[in-house]
């Protein structure tokens, strides 16, 4: 015992205490992050001598610690056994901030001064009744991904909007945000609505202007995710000085547009657009799908996610039943839902055949009639894009071709086809179906020989329909090149001539017939690729691809890849078109780069980059070269029925 009467621990006791200490959990580190960093879940770093952390300094946010203060206050109250303050919003009607933790609330007069991304956190707490002005504040808030520059004298520190160009700082002002949003909405209705007529332009404009006025009406505003989607589309095609400055800073790409698209998807997910079947959610899903990247494996997008959600919503709402659609009393709502069904039905079929997946819908999943418009000549005023396209027969033609696409998807993209090859009977069936469609529809909805220049809706629609037919041959040819023909694959594996029957034709005596089928599909595919290249050349020369919401993108890529693999110089038209596409779809520029590399490799080696179809490609008759210069529309030398492409006559077919 020491002089103070204390017992000193022996060495054995010290060792035991040390071992016990190692088993205890480490003391909890106090969370001193500011409100902005806490909401964004990023590390809060403050340099010595600075009042704000680096994140708040770069964003020009107030570096507040309301949540930390509330938590500390609760701990003090608990330690002194005092009752917590009454702060329930149920008693006095005071709103509780989303940043409040454990039931504590931030003083409302302070919470209202926080930036919206701070108030709302990662998923914005926007509801269907949130004022449209606040939705715009969220959409146009500064970029979160801007790199923090520790240099306080850096020009980037002048404005949190610096990453979006020299004019982006104007987005700090509420009046400019409203004017900018209205401008983007007009761009949407001028360009996108003509291809995807899912909204009532007059109704949307009027409601938006009313809710952006100084005295907004008492009724519910437009769906926040719908407003965001329309604005996001506008940023893709607008030539507003703010967006032009943004593109000039980033090699033609708009960082603002990318950010708005990301926030639109986040907002749609937060409002459960993909989960709750409503009419608005159907429209939003269909508009978001082509808004994003069209590359299936792009991690920044959710390929076919929104299309699938819209399809499920339509089925849940039973829009596929004639008996249900007839009960929708509002004519505009009924017409919108019926048109949404046909658009979904067609998109599901073509996306399945393009991107090698099974379609969701079957031919017998619906019994509703087509949207039928009156004769535009007899309708007072100019016809709507929906009425105009229906009157010209585009929807009926597209639906007919979509049924063939649906059957192709179900047979071509099966695991057994991948391993065994494509049976000859399916090749004959698809060839016959495509030629039947050509004879019935292509003269009515494709580009005629004498194209004199029509209005924008008719022009882009007939070009897209024409390309949509021809790209089907390219899809079929590419599948044959990847998988081969089943009967030939079996013969090669067995090392003997193929035996048995295929579609009622004894292959052992008809090897020449099988080769003829493969060669004809190859001719049709090259024919289609050349046709698409010519169409793309016209659209590029008129700068229409800058204004296309991805309708022609897949056809351009597929045609370019085939022409590049065969070393055809006409591929230059597809490359130029994709480079113009990259103005609004960045992945199109990457596709143009890849196609150019394939073409240069083939031209250098002298060998086509084909597998199963390589031998047949050598027997495809040489076709005249399509000039790489823009082709004036009046110089098209293509028969209406597709039997000629730049002067090439079509031989007899085995289909």
UniProtKB/TrEMBL annotation:
- Listed GO biological process terms: DNA-templated transcription; nitrogen catabolite activation of transcription from RNA polymerase II promoter
**Keyword set includes Signal:** no
Domain Zn(2)-C6 fungal-type, by residue range, is 33-65
Q: Which UniProt keywords apply?
A: Metal-binding, Nucleus
Superkingdom is: Eukaryota
Recorded hits in PROSITE patterns, A to Z, give:
ZN2_CY6_FUNGAL_1, ZN2_CY6_FUNGAL_2
InterPro entries annotated for this entry? Carb_Metab_Trans_Reg (IPR050797), XnlR_reg_dom (IPR007219), Zn2-C6_fun-type_DNA-bd_sf (IPR036864), Zn2Cys6_DnaBD (IPR001138)
Q: Where is this region: Disordered?
A: 71-104
The record's section on PANTHER family has: GLUCOSE TRANSPORT TRANSCRIPTION REGULATOR RGT1-RELATED-RELATED, TRANSCRIPTIONAL ACTIVATOR PROTEIN DAL81
Q: What is this protein called?
A: Zn(2)-C6 fungal-type domain-containing protein
Q: Which organism is it from?
A: Dendrothele bispora (strain CBS 962.96)
